[in-house]
Design a protein that fits this description.
Elements (H helix, E strand, L loop, with lengths): L1 H7 L3 H14 L3 H12 L4 H8 L5 H40 L12 H4 L4 H15 L3 E2 L5 E2 L1 H4 L30 E2 L4 H10 L4 E10 L10 E11 L4 H16 L6 E8 L2 E12 L7 E2 L4 E11 L1 H6 L8 E8 H9 L12 H7 L16
Parallel strand pairs: 1-4
Antiparallel strand pairs: 2-3, 4-5, 5-10, 6-7, 7-8, 7-9, 9-10
Helix pairs in contact: 2-5, 3-5, 4-5, 7-12
The structure holds 3,4-dihydroxyphenylalanine.
3,4-dihydroxyphenylalanine binds next to strand 9 and strand 10.
Length: about 375
């Protein structure tokens, strides 16, 4: 038995050399673990040798014991050493791929790379200005009926004033009526007066539609309506409000305005307002100086018929209103030459003219910076 055991003992030096070569060649921790299991696992080559010690004579065990145990200990040490080396190499490799160049400029987060359309930005700007003066924002539908878009606003039936706007009509209904894409934001005046008791102070920004298209006109455009109805509101208030608005919006110390007599069915008297500007430098407009005038809005005292059509007594209440083209003042302020480009949804145009989403305009924080 002991003879058989002693003859079964293999060449330990050769086995150790073979194991060491395997350890040295293991390319990663998984390969190293496979090697450990093959040698020191339950049925491993070295484990089997250790088990064979039990069958040896004490004499044989005396030499074989330390030899096999020594082999096991050296193998464990070699495995541990190789494992540490492989771990360090793996870490090194990861660090290499995850290397950060701290000198690179900060990459913008997705929320920052989008751009706010200039129209949305300008609506936010003018809302901030009028909100500061105590105005609320009112909205109405884009598809209007004849009453709100025309009749209540004192456009008489069949009157040429109705031809002032190149209206988009929806198909005629069975009762002969037809809806329109609102031609101005003035119907929101009507809706506001019908739904609220004075004092009323609102602005009504929104989309409007007319059959028109050239460099400064698009079939869909934007207006902001203003309406003040109270007992003593007068044109002096209107002039002050518009003056303050223009100074704040164009971010200048002074704006000179010119009020010209005009006609709108829903106001009496009616005026058009021009602002002074300097266009002597090519491609540039400056406000508050110069000898040019630019028309920016229509306004007037709300016609008594309109006040009456909206269920209020014109002997008790009076007020004023104005209507301004948002696209036009946006083009003027930000130097965008062609209105049609606003609505072509070209992302290159938007990334050039658009605004950073987190730069929300406020009077305190600055409108455009
Ligand atoms: N609704 C007019 C338009 O689109 C603009 C306007 C003029 C509105 C005078 C008003 C106003 O409220 O008083 O052409």
């Amino acid at each position: 038995m002991s003879v058989a055991a002693s003859t079964a003992l293999p060449d330990l030096a050769a086995l150790e050399a073979e194991l060491n070569a395997g350890v040295a060649a293991a390319a990663d921790e998984a390969a190293l673990e496979a090697l450990r299991v093959a040698a020191l696992g339950k049925k491993g080559s070295v484990s089997e040798l250790l088990k064979s010690l039990g069958g040896m004579s004490p004499e044989e065990r005396k030499t074989a014991g330390p030899a096999i145990n020594g082999l096991r200990d050296r193998l464990n040490a070699a495995l541990a050493e190789r494992r540490t080396a492989l771990k360090a190499a793996a870490l090194e490799k990861r660090l290499e791929t995850e290397r950060l160049d701290v000198t690179l400029p900060v990459r913008e987060a997705p929320a920052e790379t989008g751009r706010v359309h200039p129209i949305s930005q300008v609506i936010d700007e003018l809302t901030a200005i009028f909100a500061d003066m105590g105005f609320a924002v009112a909205e109405g539908p884009d598809i209007e009926d004849d009453f709100h878009n025309f009749t209540a606003l004192n456009f008489p039936e069949g009157h040429p004033a109705r031809e002032m706007h190149d209206t988009f009509y929806l198909p005629t209904k069975e009762d002969g009526s037809r809806l329109v894409l609102r031609t101005h934001t003035s119907p929101v005046q009507v809706r506001t007066m019908l739904a609220n008791k004075p004092p009323i102070r609102v602005i009504c920004p929104g989309r409007t539609y007319r059959s028109d298209s050239d460099q400064t006109h698009t079939p869909m455009f934007h207006q902001v309506e203003g309406l003040v109805i109270d007992k003593g509101s007068h044109l002096g208030h209107l002039k002050w409000i518009l003056q303050e608005f223009c100074k704040a919006f164009f971010e200048v110390e002074n704006v000179t305005m010119r009020f010209r007599p005009s006609f709108f069915p829903f106001t009496e008297p009616s005026m058009e307002v021009d602002i002074q500007c300097d266009r002597s430098r090519p491609g540039e407009i400056r406000f508050g100086e110069g000898s040019d005038w630019l028309e920016i809005l229509g306004c007037g005292m709300v016609h008594p018929n309109v006040i009456r059509n909206c269920g209020l007594d014109p002997d008790e209440y009076q007020g004023f209103a104005w209507g301004m083209g948002i696209d036009r003042i946006a083009m003027l302020k930000y130097g965008m030459p062609d209105l049609r480009a606003f609505f072509e949804a070209d992302v290159r145009w938007l990334s050039h003219y658009g605004f950073r989403p987190l730069d929300f305009p406020t009077l305190a924080g600055g409108l455009s910076n």
